[in-house]
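Subject: Protein entry, chain in single-letter code together with its fold tokens

Area: Proteins and the way their chains fold up in space.

Attached in line: The record itself begins immediately under this heading.
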Amino acid sequence: MKISSARSGAVSEHTQDSPIEHPAGKPRAPAASLGKLSDLSSMARPKRGAGATGATMGADNGTTPFHAGTQNDCGLHTIASLTGWSEPTVVQKLGLSEQDVKDISAHGMQPDTVTAAFKHINNGNVEHRQGTADDLVKGLAQFPEGHQFALGMQRDSGIGHLVSAKRVGDRLDITDRQINQTTSVRNEQELQQYLQQQGASKIHTWYDK
């Protein structure tokens, strides 16, 4: 996922700089019937300057059919993680062409494209917010049981990474489906350490309104 700070102000009318606060309540299920994905036409026009995230896609779990070895599919993998769909189903539901998927694999997704994708699969009921790593850490205790969201980590280089997160009991499970790895954090210190290890300088979250 490519997160460009120059474009972050145009992501969504619901975008906020801080704090990141997630409302109580469990997320709704995604829509079963989907229309044409006109909002994602920008996927076929990749932005210049995108680079690799440094992550390596898993190739042995049967859930990573796109171009194994490329490094910017994290947006599609995260959608699959949050919806419970397979990656081919995500491609089908979003109406993506083979060229769209190749472009995403090569160049990543801008935050506004991620927002459009989540709105498409959830009937528009998506909130996008942004803030600092500290904002997310301070709000950890407010996440209700079962609350899940997409977590975008912007780095100083401008190239970020997208994962899914879910509150389970006394912990927050952060799943990087691109590399088939789940990290559990149980307190603010562990979450702060995780974000520091990822080099996150700014945080984006997407969740049901």
Summary: The radius of gyration is 16 Å.
